[in-house]
Amino acid sequence: MFKTLFSKVLMVLPFITTSVFAEPIVWQVKDANREFIILGSVHAGTRDMYPLPSAFLEHWKTADSLVVEANILRPSQAPLDMSGPTTSSMLNHQQLEKLSSIASDLKLSYSSLSKNPPWLTVISIQMSLATQLGLSAEQGIDTILLRRAMNEDLPILELESVEQQLSMLKSMPDHGKEMLTTSIDDWEKMSSEFTCLINAWKSGDSQKLTALFEESQHSEAIDNVLIFDRNEDWAEQLTNGSTYQQGKFMIVVGAFHLFGDKGLPNLLKQNGFTVTQLTKSKKVQC
């Protein structure tokens, strides 16, 4: 679900917290010369996701840089490339009928969706569902922290660019058809899965988040493009890149990049870093 979502707009929210209860997971990853404080992002959020954990905010005070997947507040210079097969040409009649019903429920133009490439259609319907459920890209974690970093003149570093992300989506196997058909087939349960994901993130329930990640996995080829290849690239940058050889870095990437053997914290641990969870967790029932 949230694997394919990234926000484009922004909003400022308060950042002071005294919470001692369950909260989103924050990792400390360090060696002798550098320290990474890692928070998993949900790219569309709600007001009650804030304030962020005190463990994260305390480290923010002495940080040298904010590190994000991509600076989504910097407008992309490249026009959106919508070339390639259309959604209508890649779905069967039954799937198109259901997509039409979904578009109607979300108050989206079915005509426009059917002309989009599948990867863009799936992003459109998932983001619209998130909005319908009360989530807002304006309150996504990366958006909030990017705005704060800009206001405080904290340097912003990118692990990749918005242009690279768009290119990645365009290069999806079968143009994202599998992601779209999975979303269409599972549409009736997506609302509850979105809600469960947000609740698990708020409570720092790594077991539930891992289960949701595993349930939402696609083919190996798609998951490699969306998650695992990028994790390996980021771990290589953070370990060996000249920019990251000394200092304290606040790292914010999509939450699904952080779990399992191929998650970013574990990859950094394999590279010799010490990894510690700084926050308390609580199990959620969903």
TrEMBL record:
<dbReference type="InterPro" id="IPR002816">
    <property type="entry name" value="TraB/PrgY/GumN_fam"/>
</dbReference>
<dbReference type="InterPro" id="IPR047111">
    <property type="entry name" value="YbaP-like"/>
</dbReference>
<keyword id="KW-0406">Ion transport</keyword>
<dbReference type="GO" id="GO:0006811">
    <property type="term" value="P:monoatomic ion transport"/>
</dbReference>
<keyword id="KW-0732">Signal</keyword>
<dbReference type="InterPro" id="IPR010916">
    <property type="entry name" value="TonB_box_CS"/>
</dbReference>
<dbReference type="Pfam" id="PF01963">
    <property type="entry name" value="TraB_PrgY_gumN"/>
</dbReference>
<keyword id="KW-0813">Transport</keyword>
<protein>
    <submittedName>
        <fullName>TraB/GumN family protein</fullName>
    </submittedName>
</protein>
<feature type="signal peptide">
    <location>
        <begin position="1"/>
        <end position="22"/>
    </location>
</feature>
